[in-house]
Fold this protein.
Amino acid sequence: MRREHLLKLLQEKELYTDRPFDGCSEAEIKLLEQEMGVRLPESYRHYLLAVGHYSGRLFQGTDMQFSQLKELQDEANELLRENNNPVVLPASAFVFSIHQGYEIRFFNLDEGDNPPVMEWYEGSMKGIIKLYDSFEEFLADLIYQHSVIKWLD
């Protein structure tokens, strides 16, 4: 989902606040990739370009802002250790989200430009599961889920 389309959809679904959406610059994304030694999928890069710094009501309560991405990698592994979980994230995993401190969402960097979204959550007996077939599917569904919430301003 291209930056312009994503921003239009977020406006249409009224997921804005009094603070404007704030995307990352291409230079910021390239620097992050360089520092982490990764190449992010195109679908995720478009998300970051649109709302990487601030996504309005979308993903409230979820750590996934651009400024948190490097720390999320270590936080996810620490959460797994704290839970004495035998699950180990694949070497190609890129954690893009930790929700409420108990739910890890990631994709594998070697699975193309629109990779499946994987999840592990505290207390799960299933281990790592495939949550969505693609990052764009994940994003579209979460936009829908957040759009039906009756927000109290």
Remarks:
- Residues 13 and 72 are 28 Å apart (CA to CA).
- The longest helix spans residues 69-82.
